[in-house]
Amino acid sequence: MTVEFDNDIYTIDFTDPANGDFAIQPFTTNGPLSPTSVSLAPGAVTASTTLTLVGRGLPGWGESVIENMVHMLEHFAGPTAPTFVIPGQLWFDTTNTPVDVLKVRNQANDAWNTVLTVGTDLDFGGFKGINVGDATNPTDAMNQQSSDARYVELAGDSWMPLQI
After folding, report:
1. Which end of the chain has the least Cβ crowding within 10 Å, N or C?
2. How far apart are CA 86 and CA 129, in angstroms?
3. How confident is the model at residue 74 (pLDDT cuts 50, 70, 90)?
């Protein structure tokens, strides 16, 4: 039995049809050597995304697929932005650890927008949860400890602020 893959080109469509599509030829890959590399992976003709995508019939494709899953699980975590990005892609920027930043690529695909800053305080795009771990000041975020300290149960179903 002979199987021919010559005409089995994968056409990959983006979620948003306005972003078009791209093709992956049989026995080739499409993507960079690593998520932060500008060099192409072995066998790659081009790079359309940060991931290494494999064409039909390419031997040893499993490792690339598994590495892609890990990269997506960790949101491409690292101090260097991923290359060959696409709109909506996430990047967990660890440049200034211990204050890490989750970013998303904008629709125009020309900038990273901060979604969440993780450190001592949480910053949700300008809306901050200050001193979350030990909310002691009146302007700090509320947590169970500070909530219990500021409110007292009156009659089993109503709560009243303490006069501090």
Report:
1. N
2. 30
3. very high
Whether pLDDT at 72 is above 60: yes
Token pair of 35 as six digits: 């998520």
> What are the residue boundaries of the structural domains of the chain, listed by start?
10-73, 77-129, 133-164
Which amino acid is located at 70 in the chain? V
Q: In the chain, what is the straight-line distance between the N-terminal and C-terminal CA atoms, in Å?
A: 83
- Side-chain half-sphere CA neighbours of 14 within 13 A: 15
